């Protein structure tokens, strides 16, 4: 559990950095054989890429560095419940375990929304662990959106 | 309708090229103001990227060339019903109209599977037109997978 907590802390650090540069504060790390092999926050604005959520950024980065499409045995830590797009990407990449922080009733697709991993059109589902680092993850998002509203 | 047919023909050409280079034969083009602004087939194998479906490839390419995240007013032509990941990306990119060829009961997410555009967690849905170029699109896929099985 100490390891899981430190990996989620690394994901939270990525979320904090994302907020600092004006991105929605969600962060992720990908772990293989006990080591972080990719880390990123959201980069949709900086990259002009709606698909550059933290989860997809780390999957792409890890696939590039390993030279393989599928990330068998890899575990993904992300501060917010993955959306529909990311849940499907996690399935395609054959991620072994998914740890997420805060639930996302409006956009999540794991324990909310389309609950993709439980659908017949989902051909690989990771083991899912939720609530790790939840308070810190949710607090980052609340603070970010409150400050955005004050800017408007 | 002549225009829609020629845009789907261009998507089919991308699917054919994808098959030639060993990728699953799905192709897409993105059209803005009556002109094709991005075209691609699947590139998951070549790019070592599970997210490099034809739809996501053209969305990313168009966003890069236009320097903007959202593709308001753009229409997407794709030879196969988008999967769960791509349906959500299409929604995020604010695509205006989606034209797709063949249905995909096993992996589709528009008229099959999670039917994402009809869900409460989908915050933008394109107009959807299906069946355009369906026979040619399905035939490319059938031929490709038959030849793969013979290789095994």
Automatic annotation (TrEMBL), chains A, B:
Gene3D superfamilies: Cytidine Deaminase, domain 2. It holds the Pfam family dCMP_cyt_deam_1. Its EC number is 3.5.4.33. GO terms for molecular function: tRNA-specific adenosine-34 deaminase activity; zinc ion binding. InterPro entries: APOBEC/CMP_deaminase_Zn-bd, CMP_dCMP_dom, Cytidine_deaminase-like, tRNA_aden_deaminase. Its cofactor is Zn(2+). The keyword Hydrolase applies. The active site is at residue 55. Zn(2+) binds at residues 53, 83, 86. Keywords: Hydrolase, Metal-binding, tRNA processing, Zinc. Coiled coil: none annotated. Residues 2-111 form the CMP/dCMP-type deaminase domain. GO terms for biological process: tRNA wobble adenosine to inosine editing. Binds 1 zinc ion per subunit. It catalyses: adenosine(34) in tRNA + H2O + H(+) = inosine(34) in tRNA + NH4(+). Catalyzes the deamination of adenosine to inosine at the wobble position 34 of tRNA(Arg2). Belongs to the cytidine and deoxycytidylate deaminase family. ADAT2 subfamily. PANTHER family: CYTOSINE DEAMINASE FAMILY MEMBER, TRNA-SPECIFIC ADENOSINE DEAMINASE. Homodimer. This is tRNA-specific adenosine deaminase. It comes from Rhizobium deserti. The gene is tadA.
């Amino acid at each position: 559990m100490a390891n899981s907590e430190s990996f989620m802390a690394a994901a939270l650090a990525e979320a904090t950095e994302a907020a600092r540069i004006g991105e929605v504060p969600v962060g992720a790390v990908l772990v293989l054989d006990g080591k972080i092999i990719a880390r990123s926050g959201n980069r949709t604005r900086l990259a002009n890429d709606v698909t550059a959520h933290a989860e997809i950024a780390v999957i792409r980065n890890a696939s590039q560095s390993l030279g393989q499409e599928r990330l068998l045995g890899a575990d993904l830590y992300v501060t917010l419940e993955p959306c529909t797009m990311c849940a499907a990407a996690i399935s395609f990449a054959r991620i072994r375990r998914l740890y997420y922080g805060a639930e996302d009733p409006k956009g999540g697709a794991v324990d909310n929304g389309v609950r993709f991993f439980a659908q017949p059109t989902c051909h690989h589902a990771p083991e899912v662990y939720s609530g790790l680092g939840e308070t810190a993850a949710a607090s980052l998002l609340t603070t970010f959106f409150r400050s955005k509203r004050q800017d408007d």
